[in-house]
Design brief:
This protein has 125 residues and is of the alpha+beta class. It has a domain of 80 residues. The chain has a 5-stranded antiparallel β-sheet. A hairpin with an 8-residue loop joins strand 2 and strand 3. The longest helix has 18 residues.
């Protein structure tokens, strides 16, 4: 992960404003962005069109960048494994060949039983 992929800033939302960190490497959708929200100490998914106008660069008096970076990296470790995509390797089970299934162990009702059931349903029983 390059440091150029990480942006430190503030989400300005009135009383709920918070320092945030944006990590480009975890973007999955062009319409959504993930931000580490420092006040909540977790990653939150936002609509890009709504949140980007509310973001500004981190200023000197907001929070120590080192403090924000430590909290972000700790949350990132917990966040990433939960969303990791499992990749199959050579040990994956082989697909079963397509073909006719063996239905010999399935017991089929005879036509008389089926007709009796249909009559019961029609009579309202």
């Amino acid at each position: 992960m390059s440091t150029n992929d990480i942006w430190y800033g503030v989400l300005e939302a009135g009383d709920r404003s918070s320092p945030v960190v944006r990590d480009q490497s975890i973007q999955v959708n062009s319409n959504k962005i993930w931000l580490y929200h420092h006040a909540r100490n977790t990653f939150v998914e936002y609509s890009q069109a709504i949140v980007e106008p509310k973001l500004r660069e981190l200023a000197t008096g907001d929070i120590a960048r080192d403090e924000l970076d430590r909290a972000f990296r700790a949350a990132r470790k917990a966040f990433a494994p939960a969303r990791k995509i499992q990749k199959w390797d050579d040990r994956a089970p082989a697909a079963r060949p397509a073909g006719k299934k063996d239905d010999s162990d399935i017991e089929m009702a005879d036509d008389e039983d089926a007709a009796e059931f249909i009559d019961d349903v029609e009579d309202g029983e």
